[in-house]
């Protein structure tokens, strides 16, 4: 009884706080000074039409590096928790898993049609990160969803944990090396002017942003695939 | 007006997720509640950056370079939301790994079975 | 006029999505819930995208590709889920009469 009462009190009080926030909120008429300076500076200094990717990969690139570190830590902790030899299937549902049945023909045909499309789509998202919406993280997540589809449709599929581990480590190291090159050649750590800026809106433009996006996409894709591989029985 | 509706939807999702975390006994449903709270927070973050009659801060044939500063939506909350979504997914992965180990130790998915940490 | 047709199609799509959610709440067991969710939401998706294509005719090809993608993935995934649920022997609702997959598997098992 007191449990239900305290739950109701907690939710009602949170609801009152949120309601006061909504009532006191007024839409901005013009952008704030910091946002306006970012919108003006990113096409002018970095040569990238997509302002958000310019912010994420140059002006606030150190936060992106921290997020890459968080992802690595999560992959390591999932490997720690689920890595050891687990007990064979036991418990209330143990008698229901007779053997690993192969997936049906519909799923296999659908996988054969979809996995090339998903890979092309992921590459498109990564490489066009500086021109339209997209970037490294989004493309990496799409790569991992393609790997998940292969894992579900073909139960004997082995993505190769050593290869993925080596690939993601090399991509992460190259990312930091590009940042140090920015210190030496251009204005600061992870500056994108180590490569020429090129013509505004072209495919090979905006300096090092496509290269950084590609490295990010490879690292995030391999990381998420390693996490998904750990969840198999 | 639009951003007020989106803001209310985000806060409603946070409240529904919080209710799910507090009342459910199945571990997987609690994890879904946490994921709902995260999604609601991301919606709130993006809704705060809306500028009236603004459009996405990407310079293409819809938004030219000269009028970008006056008609574009705030880009900083969108960048924060990208980071937040990735970290939310990572935390969900760790929670699911813990759920698997908890199930293997007590053979049940109800959190009423785990009483060692209670007073 | 075309705006009106497009908006009516989007509204129909939204009604189908709502009925998908309602079906998932009210149906008795896993298999009927999956059927309600998949069929109604796929049709709702298609109608919303068709209404959008009438609003903006220049987006027609891209929206057609999206409809193709949704039609490829939604039924395949619900098929895989239903088969997995049948493999771990989740019980069916009380007044289910025919179980075609169990009969087919018994025939295949006894035939070899």
Helix count from the secondary structure assignment of chain C:
4
Could you give the count of β-strands of chain A?
Answer: 0
Q: Helical element count of chain A?
A: 8
Oligomer: heterotrimer
- The topology string of helices and strands of chain C comes to HHHH
Structural class by SSE content of chain A: mainly alpha
- Output mean pLDDT of chain C: 88
Largest interface: A-B, 57 and 52 residues
Q: The biggest beta sheet of chain C, please? A: none
Helix content of chain C: over 70%
Distance between the termini of chain A: 40 Å
| Unreliable sequence segments of chain A | none
Order of helices and strands of chain A: HHHHHHHH
Keywords:
heterotrimer, B: 119 residues, mainly alpha, Helix Hairpins, 4 helices, 0% strand, elongated, C: 112 residues, 81% helix
Explained architecture:
The complex is a heterotrimer of chains A (about 230), B (about 120) and C (about 110). With about 230 residues, chain A is an all-alpha fold. Chain A has a domain at about 60-80 and about 100-233. Chain A is about 65% helix and about 0% strand. Chain A has 8 helices and no strands. Chain A is globular and about 60 Å long. The model of chain A has no long low-confidence stretch (mean pLDDT about 85). The longest helix of chain B is centred in the C-terminal third of the chain and has 31 residues, at about 75-105. The model of chain B has no long low-confidence stretch (mean pLDDT about 90). Chain B is an all-alpha fold. Chain B has one domain: Helix Hairpins. Chain C has one domain. In chain C, helix 1 (about 1-25) runs antiparallel to helix 2 (about 30-55). The model of chain C has no long low-confidence stretch (mean pLDDT about 90). Chain C has about 110 residues and is mostly helical. The longest helix of chain C is centred in the middle third of the chain and has 28 residues, at about 60-85. Chain C has helices at about 1-25, 30-55, 60-85, 100-110. Chain C has 4 helices and no strands.
């Amino acid at each position: 009884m007191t449990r239900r009462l305290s739950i109701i009190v907690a939710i009602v009080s949170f609801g009152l706080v949120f309601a006061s926030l909504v009532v006191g909120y007024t839409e901005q008429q013009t952008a704030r000074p910091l946002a306006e300076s970012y919108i003006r500076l990113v096409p002018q200094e970095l040569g990238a039409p997509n302002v958000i990717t310019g912010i994420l990969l140059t002006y606030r690139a150190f936060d992106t590096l921290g997020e890459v570190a968080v992802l690595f830590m999560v992959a390591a902790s999932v490997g720690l928790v689920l890595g050891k030899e687990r007990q064979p299937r036991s418990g209330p549902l143990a008698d229901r898993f007779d053997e690993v049945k192969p997936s049906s023909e519909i799923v296999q045909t659908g996988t054969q049609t979809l996995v090339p499309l998903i890979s092309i789509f992921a590459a498109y998202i990564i490489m066009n990160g500086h021109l339209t919406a997209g970037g490294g993280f989004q493309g990496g997540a799409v790569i991992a969803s393609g790997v998940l589809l292969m894992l579900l449709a073909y139960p004997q599929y082995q993505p190769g944990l050593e290869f993925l581990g080596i690939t993601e480590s090399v991509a992460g190291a190259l990312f930091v090396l590009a940042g140090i090159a920015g210190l030496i050649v251009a204005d600061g750590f992870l500056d994108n002017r180590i490569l020429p800026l090129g013509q505004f809106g072209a495919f090979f433009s905006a300096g090092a942003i496509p290269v950084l996006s590609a490295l990010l996409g490879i690292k995030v894709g391999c990381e998420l695939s390693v996490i998904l591989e750990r969840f198999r029985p | 007006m639009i951003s007020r509706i989106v803001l209310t939807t985000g806060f409603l999702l946070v409240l529904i997720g919080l209710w799910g975390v507090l009342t459910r006994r199945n571990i997987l449903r609690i994890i879904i509640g946490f994921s709902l709270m995260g999604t609601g927070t991301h919606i709130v973050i993006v809704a705060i950056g809306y500028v009236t009659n603004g459009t996405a801060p990407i310079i293409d044939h819809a938004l030219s370079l000269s009028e970008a500063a006056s008609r574009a939506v705030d880009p900083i909350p969108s960048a924060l939301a990208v980071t937040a979504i990735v970290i939310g997914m990572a935390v969900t992965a760790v929670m699911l790994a813990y759920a698997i180990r908890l199930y293997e130790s007590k053979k049940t998915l109800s959190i009423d079975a785990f009483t060692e940490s209670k007073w | 006029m075309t705006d009106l047709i497009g908006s009516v199609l989007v509204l129909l799509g939204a009604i189908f999505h709502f009925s998908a959610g309602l079906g998932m709440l009210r149906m008795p067991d896993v298999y009927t819930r999956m059927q309600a969710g998949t069929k109604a939401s796929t049709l709702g998706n298609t109608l919303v995208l068709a209404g959008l294509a009438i609003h903006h005719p220049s987006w027609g090809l891209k929206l057609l590709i999206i409809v193709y993608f949704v039609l490829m993935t939604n039924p395949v995934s619900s098929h895989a889920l239903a088969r997995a649920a049948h493999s771990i022997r989740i019980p069916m609702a009380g007044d289910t009469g025919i179980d075609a997959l169990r009969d087919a598997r018994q025939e295949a098992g006894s035939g070899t």
